[in-house]
Amino acid sequence: MAVLIRDADVLDLSGLRKNSNIFVDDGRIVQVSSDIPAFSKIDYVIEGKGKLAIPGLINAHVHTEETLFANSIPDTANHIEWFQNYALPYYGALTQEDAYWSTLFSQALMLMHGVTCYADSANLWPLADAKAAERCGIRAFIGMWNCDLNTPFARPTDKCLEQMENLLRKLSKSTKVRAIASLIGVNTCSDELYKGTIALAKKHKTLATSHEASGHEDVVKCVKRTGKRPIEHLASIGFLTRQTLISHATDLSDKEVRLIKANDCAIAACPVTELKKGKGLWKFGKLVQLISSNVRICVGTDNANSSNNFDPIKSALFLSLLAKDYALNPSIVNARSAFCFLTKCASDIFSLNTGVLQPNFIADLVLLEKEPFLLFGDPYQALLFCDQPKIDLVMVGGEVVYLNGKLLKIDFNEVLKEVEKRSQRIAKRVLDHGHCKNCS
């Protein structure tokens, strides 16, 4: 479909372009200029006057299957208690249909926050989640829950790798929904599983991702088990590469920052989660060092009982504020850099041709109302620090999936009704089986 967005202001890392026309055809941006493009085929015209076009946002770490349980875990639970007493019992009660509706609901909420692409690295039902993504039109990177040690969901190493490769193959032909090679983390996965995972990521030209140094307790357990801190251990077994995306990285040493940089790994930071759970980001984190070392950074919202939101701008805001204050230096990261974490930096990490609004790039974009905060001043600051503007349009791969407050490919009211019903049912199943307390 050929779409013309007429007379919008355009913002990406190259700066602000006023009164521009964006012509999209066959899923890509063809032209961005002040001139009306002289193309005979225009199927759809969208008025952009008074609006700001930005690249679609990327939520680089999220767990969509957990949203049926949103706001159901006490915010006083520490990291280990949260996982053992609440998350694991919930997953034990989760059905494939539950996963589908939880994911569809999560995807809808992300689209409504301007997210055109997300990465989910721990799914029990990845094909159900992929089906939901295809239905609502969002771009997705989906990984399986893979571990071979110390959890009720552990499977033999060879079985994990076999199922991981099957998923990588099954989702290899989709233009929007792809698989990533994913692991839970160093305290639940063997060295053999890590080595096999990075080999599969290289074979299938995708990312390998895992949850590492997620909190101080994780680091203590890793040192006790392996004799090394998590990132040090992963470096010693060859898991750290340019294709490695480390989620969380809450508790790092200076040496580990150097290892991450030396191996050109990327970090998916989830600052709201770490702060909410009291995991030690302020005390043990190395945000300032990661930023000043030019480590590749993207941000994620994590899940509905960690940050409890699907707004990656909020994650970028918290990251920026923490770094500025910890460094006693507001120039350590500016609003434009935070905008990059959400767009071009993240796009490069996932090897997407998105993140800027220029010809030949994939047309993942968002159209925002400029009133009230985007009318004047620095638009990067307005997006990061001010209240979120109203979103008028979300386009993924040239397809309009959200317009004027309405999701176009799904009935959001239907999703809400189904999610509310299933949320009550799964809470009851968890309680009836005595898996956890305070789940109602």
From TrEMBL:
The Amidohydrolase-related domain, residue ranges: 53-401
Q: Which SUPFAM superfamilies match?
A: Composite domain of metallo-dependent hydrolases, Metallo-dependent hydrolases
Q: Which InterPro entries match?
A: Amidohydro-rel (IPR006680), Metal-dep_hydrolase_composite (IPR011059), Metal_Hydrolase (IPR032466), MTA/SAH_deaminase (IPR050287)
Keyword annotations: Hydrolase
As one GO molecular function, the record gives: hydrolase activity, acting on carbon-nitrogen (but not peptide) bonds
Asked whether the keyword Hydrolase is assigned, the reply is: yes
Pfam family of this protein, just one? Amidohydro_1
Q: What is this protein called?
A: Amidohydrolase-related domain-containing protein
